[in-house]
Amino acid sequence: MIDQAKARRESMRWYILRALDNSRPIDPHEAVVLATIQGIFPDATQVELRRELDYLEDRSLVTIERKPSGQWVAGLTHYGVDIVEYTIDCHPGIARPEKYWSA
User: Fold this and answer.
1) Residue 103 clears pLDDT 70, i.e. is over it
2) How many CB atoms lie within 10 A of CB 53?
3) CATH-assigned architecture of domain 4-84
4) What is the 3-state secondary structure (H, E, C) of the chain?
5) Which residues does residue 66 pair with via DSSP β-bridges, in sequence order?
6) What is the pTM (predicted TM-score) of this model?
7) Average pLDDT, the chain
8) Are 61 and 76 in contact, with CB atoms under 8 Å apart?
9) Inter-residue long-range contacts of 32-40, CB under 8 Å, 24+ positions, other chains counted
């Protein structure tokens, strides 16, 4: 049986990394990332996004600038870029698809 909550969390982490990669070299405001994630998970919330960003920050894959206004700006670290570009192994917790396009 598939754990839907776990699958959602891990997929969301992958899509967050992809959104941040697509915005490089600009680090986007959390509202931009949330809008992107809501294109995939329409019911995604700011709290849910922040929880997954915090997880990715703990794994040194993203940086988060927490503004005094309460807003967050996120960007990829070099490890995050390497995960997205498939140059390093991706440990469990992120639903990165298998690389199928080259040997």
Assistant:
1) no
2) 23
3) Orthogonal Bundle (1.10)
4) CCCHHHHHHHHHHHHHHHHHHHHCCCCCEHHHHHHHHHCCCCCCCHHHHHHHHHHHHHCCCEEEEECCCCCEEEEECHHHHHHHCCCCCCCCCCCCCCCCCCC
5) 72
6) 0.94
7) 95
8) yes
9) 33/74, 37/12, 40/11, 40/12, 40/15
- Looking at this protein, which amino acid is placed at residue 92? P
Contact (Cβ atoms closer than 8 angstroms) between residue 10 and residue 95: yes
Q: Which comes out higher in pLDDT, residue 102 or 41?
A: 41
Question: Which pLDDT tens digit goes with each residue over 74-96?
Answer: 999 999 999 999 999 999 999 99
Structure tokens at 103: 């040997």
Any idea which residue has 């959390």 for tokens?
Answer: 30
Asked if residue 102 lies in contact with residue 21, where contact means CB atoms within 8 angstroms, the answer is: no
Measured on CA atoms in the order 51, 52, 55, 61, is the torsion positive or negative?
negative
Give the side-chain half-sphere CA count within 13 A for 29: 7
Q: Residue 87 is encoded by which pair of tokens? A: 């140059």
- Phi/psi of residue 68, each to 5°? -60, -25
